Amino acid sequence: MSEITESYPSCDVDNEESTYSYQTYKTEPPVGEEILTKFENRSALAQDLNLLSGLPELCDIIFLVGEDKQPVCAVRAILAARSRVFRKQLYSHVPRRCSLKDAAPRSIKSKSKPPNTIVVPEFEPSVFKQLIEYLHTGVCTLQPRTLFGLVNAADHYDVEELKQACINFVGQSISTDTVCHMLSNADRYIQYKSTKVLIQKVMEFIDRNGDEVLSLPSFSILPKHVVQLIISRESLAVSEVNKFVAVYNWSKSQYEKERCLPLNCDEKVVKLSDIVEGFLDYIQFHKIPIHYLMNEVRQSGAVPDTIIMMAVAYQMDPASIDVSKFSRSYSH
């Protein structure tokens, strides 16, 4: 081709900015100097394809997603073209036809059938809708709240570029405003391998910003084993006092929730100290100043006196107490 020029004017489609392009060029002989123009408007295509999920009559597959089995519609030919896993799932049982000529009479005579349905219990509806949107349009809005679900959905359905985009997005989106919400959502997808990659990135952020993260109100929404994972990290740059405060506040939050629940006859009343007990091995009380141990920790009533007295005795005379016998935390 002897000449190529490109221009990118903008137009407004449905109140959203849309970009399209022209490619104008002259062809080589023997056609001669004929002028050809290639017009592209991919954003408009993406917007139109995105309407499919909202128009069930245009779709031929329905996914019932999550615990409530919310319907998510799609065009299975698009899914099969974009995902090897979907192709195998949706078309492995369909015999290949020899030619379009053979298929045409059947398609004309056949009556329309209702869309097939597939149950997808492992992903949240909001996550699965994002995946379907991306497969149909090539566009997806990444957000911290659904990040763990989306990265695992992309991995599960072998959409590698979306998976990598989610992993890269963690570094941009993680902050003290989003970190706890990320981790609380991660618990649902803990069995997936991609979760471990993202959790490692999140934990490294917490290691660097531990004091601020542990004091967040949203810290109380984290599951118990996640809190244990955080405070047990040797790389966590947080004092033992701040660890205790974070654990105590988390336990108080859980205790208040427990008190609001109806109690069966065979259930015992949960005490605040019962909840705190699950964290005692992860706090090195012998590194907490004596005045704080006596005035704050002991007054809370959440820590046994034996642990407090042992920590005080260790600080008075380290040789008098073999702290490794009492808990994992004293062995460090």
**H/I helix tally:** 15
Mean pLDDT: 80
User: First CA to last CA: what distance?
Assistant: 72 Å
The strand count comes to 8
Query: Low-confidence runs (pLDDT<50, min 5 residues)?
Result: 1-16, 97-112, 328-332
Structural class: alpha+beta
Strands in their spatial order, largest beta sheet: 1-4-5
Largest sheet: 3 strands, antiparallel
Radius of gyration: 29 Å
Beta-strand share of residues: 5-15%
- Residues in helix, %: 40-55%
Shape: elongated
Order of helices and strands: EEEEEHEEHHHEHHHHHHHHHHH
What keywords describe this structure?
47% helix, disordered N terminus, elongated, 8 strands, alpha+beta, 3-stranded antiparallel sheet, 332 residues, 3-stranded mixed sheet
Structure description:
- With 332 residues, this protein is α+β, with helices and mostly antiparallel strands.
- Helix content is 47%, strand content 12%.
- It has helices at residues 42-50, 76-82, 84-91, 100-109, 125-137, 147-156, 160-173, 179-186, 193-208, 210-214, 224-231, 240-260, 272-276, 290-300, 305-316; strands at 3-7, 10-13, 16-19, 21-26, 35-40, 61-65, 70-74, 116-120.
- The protein has a three-stranded antiparallel β-sheet with strand order 1-4-5, with no helix packed on it.
- The longest helix has 21 residues, at 240-260.
- It is elongated and about 95 Å long.
- The termini are far apart.
